[in-house]
Amino acid sequence: MQKRLIALAILAASVSVSSQADIIGATAGAYMWKQSWEGDVKAGSQSIDMNDDLGYDDETGKSFYVALEHPVPVLPNIRLQHTSLDISETSQLSRTFTFDGDTYTNADSVNSTTDLSHTDGTLYYEILDNWVNLDVGLTVRMFDGEVRLAATGRDSSIDIDAPIPMAYVNARFELPLTGLYASGLGNVIAYGDNKVTDMTLALGYELGVLGLEIGYRNFDVQLEDDNEETNVTVDGYFIGLVLDI
């Protein structure tokens, strides 16, 4: 009798684990992003053009994420993503301007860095789950960056480190029997003179638990704080791998 109870307990546990495995899922991905930078920044009365003044052009960044979906209906799922988004350049100035109280003059050699790297924490609900998958939720984006200029005897910067709440939408469209899919992800917020829009479009091919994606990402940020302004657009194509368990 005791052996039979033990056998039944093991069977029940196996069924429970198998059932949970069917409804608990994890997705992880990573990609390389070829970034094109443009825009301007200001810490004072004059705007500084990232291309004409600072010599910015292209850069390569990385992004990786992990998402966990669980079977509890009232609790949101969770997604974490980190994006490396920074560029550095040395340029010879052709005009004079001020930045954060320092004056940079014509013919100065200026070392500059703009860092918009950020980490997203997202809580979301799965609204549709068939050949169309739709998730909606809320993202809190934590910037840990700055804009810094340095020349002989001068070193000035503005910090970009505020948390920003954003609406989150993620849709995926399966092409049945092919392994192909298309997806789109958006994080958006606008308040006053501040606006952040981050859109990603991708095409992917999935074989088993592993997928390959190619896509395009456009990140646009407009932030204003007193006499400090950041108006930057970073966009470009990416290629990455996805693991769906």
TrEMBL record:
Species: Zhongshania guokunii
Q: Specify the protein name.
A: TIGR04219 family outer membrane beta-barrel protein
The record's annotation in NCBIfam families points to: OMP_w_GlyGly
| Keyword tags | Signal
The signal peptide stretch is 1-21
Q: Which domain of life is it from?
A: Bacteria
What InterPro entries does the record point to?
OMP_w_GlyGly
